[in-house]
Every structure is written in structure tokens, then in C-alpha cells.
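Weekly modeling sync, notes
Attendees: S.R. (lead), two postdocs, one rotation student

Agenda item 3: backlog of single-chain predictions. S.R. asked that every request posted to the team notebook include the full sequence so nobody has to chase files. The rotation student volunteered to paste the first one in as an example of the format we agreed on. Action items at the bottom.

Example entry:
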Amino acid sequence: MAVNIFYFFIFPGLLFMAVAGGLLSWFDRKITARVQFRQGPPLLQPFYDFFKLLLVKETILPRHGSPVVFMLAPLLAVFGATMAGLFILLPLFNISTGFRGDLLVIFYLLTLPSFSYILGSVASGNPLAAVGSSREIKLVISYELTFLLIIAAVIMKSGQHFDLDTVIAMQRSGTPFIGSVSGVLLFIAAVFCIQAKLGLVPFDMPEAETELSSGIYIEYSGPPYAMIKLAKYIMLFILPALVVALLMNGMGQGAGILWAVLKILGVVLLLTLIRNTSPRVKIRQASGFFFIWMNLIVVIAIVLIAFGL
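Predicted structure, as returned to the notebook:
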């Protein structure tokens, strides 16, 4: 029991993921600043932002809506992100537990943060938050099918194995999945799915500061908003880590750990460059992008996998 508590709260759980996610958030903001010819924030700025919201800022509850659901939604987002991250990172760090990292369980846990934001925004009773939640629902419906197809393709590529340990072990004993044509196509689709899951431009329609004044987060402040930031920090770390585990050989020992860190940084760098070179799209355009083009790419990858490519 004590070991499981350590895994969940310390390493590779909540504390480790929060610190790693905060550092990646700084990396994202620093690259963004350099692209825009600015200096950028100091290394600890994401942690300053989090603790300022957690310890200094006041929590203002909306007059209309459900305060209980409004307050619990960010905690549910942190819980879902932490559990998903735990089941992703345990196999990556070669830590054996009773659970073997079922990919379908990870898929469902990764949906919890998005659904939590939807619940919280609806519970606020704010019409702008309701518009943001409507956009979030449509966006989730659009990219989750693509994400599920990516997982199905990885399962096919690994010989019908559902556990992440086996997927990583097969790549270590052979060639990383990204070393094939189908793997490259899956990587392209996965990057755009992560972009949408994180709510980054061009898929930030639910937040849309210039249109909806932060949309689904408009009523959040203080500690509840700190929990939302924490969930986003964790997701910024575990989603690239999942791509590394599914397609890029996971994490080895010794120098392999450094190589895995560089791969995660590379994925985050790619997400940041897309965010800074793309305009926000309409929700209709985003739905068409995933339903037609990304699904088509993944289906082509599945056909190539059937032919051993």
C-alpha cells in the first residue's frame, strides 16, 4: 500500500508529473517568446503562476449554477491526468505493478480532463462558458475517434497486445514503430490529436480569449484555476510521453533516459511551433480536419500495417 501511495503522489506520480509539466510549460513559453523575438519568462515562472493562484488569489463562486460541481471539476481533471500519467510512466520507467498499462484504460482516463472542463463550465451558469463547453464537446467528438484509431493501429502493429509494457518491449527488441511508413502517419495524426487535447492553437476554440474571454475557464479563479493549470501541466508532459511510448521506443536505461527526454522535448517543440505558426480555426473546420483528413491518414496507416509496412 505504501509503495502504491508513493507511486501515485511522488514518483512517477503527481509531484514528478507536476514538476516535469511545469518545466515543459516554461520550455513552451520560452520557445514562443523566441519565435516572437521576446526574452521569455524565467525558469520558475509556471510554478510562480501556480502558487500565486493557489495561495494568494481569491476563489469567486458564480452566483448562478452549481458550486459543488464547479469546485469539484478541476479536481477530477487533476485526478484523471494523474492516473493516466501513472499508467503511462510506470511502463516507461520499467516499474512493475499489478496493472500492465492497458491502452484502453489510458484512453478513457485521458478523456477525464476534457469532460471535467465541460462539467465545470456548464456548472458556472455563464453563457460564454456554455458556448465554450459546446465547442469543447464538438472538438472532443472530433479528435477522440482519431485518437482511438491510433491506439487501435498501435495494437495491430504490436501483434494484438493491449498493454503498454508489451508495446514498448516489442519496439526495444526490434525497430521503433515510427521507423515505418505507417508509424510516421500515426505520429502525424497523434501530434494533431495532442494539439487538440491540450487546447492549443489552432484548436483553442473552447477557450478563445479574443472571442469568449477564456470561454470554459471564464469563471474560474484562485485555487480551482490553479488545479486546472496543474492538470494542463501534467497533460503537457504525459501526452508527449505517451507518443514516445507508443511509437518511439519508450525509455531505456542510462543514456536511454536522456534520449527519451530529448524525444519528449522534440514533440513539445513541434507542438509549440505549430501553435505559433497557425491561426485559430473554426469548430466546423476542426471537425472536418479530424473526421476527414486525420481519420483518412490513420486508416491508410492501418491498411499499411495489414501489409506489414
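Discussion: group reviewed the output briefly. The mean pLDDT is 90.
Action items: rotation student to repeat for the remaining queue; S.R. to check formatting next week.
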